[in-house]
Amino acid sequence: MIIIDQALQTRATLGKPVKVAMIGAGFMGKGIANQIINSVPGMELVAIANRNLEKAKQAYSEAGIDDCQVVSSVLDLENALIQNQCAITEDAILLCEADGIDAIIEVTGTIEYAAHLVMRAIAHQKHVILMNAELDGTIGPILKVHADRAGVILTACDGDQPGVEMNLYRFVKSIGLTPLLCGNIKGLQDPYRNPTTQAGFAQKWGQNPAMVTSFADGTKISFEQAIVANGTGMKVAKRGMLGYEYKGHVDEMTKMYDVDQLKELGGIVDYVVGTKPSPGVFVFATHDDPKQRHYLNLYKLGEGPLYSFYTPYHLCHFEVPISVARAVLFHDPVLSPLAGPVVDVVATAKIDLKAGETLDGIGYYMTYGQCENSDIVNQENLLPMGIAEGCRLKRDIPQDQVLTYDDVELPAGRLCDQLRHEQTVYFAPSKTLVMAQ
Q1: 223 close to 136: Cβ distance less than 8 angstroms
Q2: Interacting residues of 200 by C-beta distance below 8 A, sequence separation 6+
Q3: Confidence of residue 264 (pLDDT cuts 50, 70, 90)
Q4: Which of 339, 336, 318 is CA-nearest to residue 158?
Q5: First-to-last CA distance in the chain?
Q6: CA-CA distance, 293 to 301, in Å (whole number)?
Q7: Contact at 8 Å (CB) between 308 and 280?
Q8: What is the rounded average pLDDT for all residues in the chain?
Q9: Short-list 211, 53, 36, CA closest to 132
Q10: 233 conformational bin, left if phi > 0, alpha if psi -120 to 50, beta if neither
């Protein structure tokens, strides 16, 4: 974002940097820390929280800062901020509650834990930048309601594919075209991958095997495309998305989609496998004006009716500070739900499941996630993938069957279930909607 660099430089010149704290110091968290500390004038990473304190310390030290103060209370943290000393803690709630912090970057990839943190940060009027599509795709719409009431921004981030898609979507709309497809380019899609099959890849890149699995088994891309759908109003053409495999360039795929179907659905989110440029994103759009279509053809975008726009990369942690600046300085979310959920991610059996078993988490051995339009999710009482972990099965479920609320017993007392219930009620199309209990 060209305007962002000048705005941050002004804050640096004035000696009034944007002050941001981060929750989560894993693979991506360390990258974000390094980026802000060494490459973003006008912004300071003032605190990091991680349940393993040593990892928080490591994130700072790898970025060149070794004199962090360990804090255990809000007062300790606020005093560290006054003294311009970086702080680390095991208690992420402190970051959410302390004065002197403009925004929180949430990088945990969790659902229940993150839900508590985001709600607390919103209550203390802090902007929240989510590098957590799983949380966003499960209860993002109701979290956005709470953020709006508090007058703060809740947003996904630049750098992750959903944010890059949304930036491209906004650009395409801004030049007068109508986006009909927001797409994500993948190199692999195999719903039966698990942490054992992905262990070697994870070790090579220093990543978590479960996180790597969530990419390989399609769960991650489902969450990513769900939040794009919720931010644009687009749907999916079918459960699981179309997911074409195509080895050529994405520009060559414009004839593979039914434009009338795309228009009827109000646009769709989708993904493609093996297509160039990987790992980019793309938007297919139309233009109603024949005069402008003539110009688009002259400018080498073809004769239509679909025109291809793409970004050939997404740079993850490099771009996250841009999102912070957009929220704090311009009140501009990268990607937030328009209203209620349009597309959800539903839990699907990765293997044959047995009654009495307790479901494991995202990217593990028992389930994978698929996109489904939210009206169908409600009609069929389907179990959201973000809710599935910890649920106890009431009956046997065959491989590839989508789970329903009727198939499971929910753990007691979870905030994520309360917020999901609140979301369903708040955005119910009528008072007669029957809620899943």
Answers
A1: yes
A2: none
A3: very high
A4: 318
A5: 44
A6: 9
A7: no
A8: 95
A9: 211
A10: left
Q: Are 20 and 44 in contact (CB under 8 A)?
A: yes
Contacts 24+ apart (CB under 8 A), 94-98: 94/47, 94/49, 95/21, 95/22, 95/23, 95/47, 95/49, 95/121, 96/120, 96/121, 96/123, 96/124, 96/126, 97/124, 98/21, 98/47, 98/74
Tokens 């989560």 — which residue?
A: 24
Structure tokens, 388: 């599935």
Which tokens in the block code for residue 226? 């769900």
The string of pLDDT tens digits covering residues 325-356 is: 999 999 999 999 999 999 999 999 999 999 99
Q: Give pLDDT tens digits for 64-76.
A: 999 999 999 999 9
Q: Enumerate the H helices of 317-383 as residue ranges.
A: 320-330, 374-380
C-alpha dist (Å) from residue 175 to 34, 179, 182: 35, 11, 16
- pTM value is 0.95
Residue pair 78/51 in contact (Cβ under 8 Å)? The answer is no
Euclidean distance between CA atoms 323 and 329, whole angstroms: 10
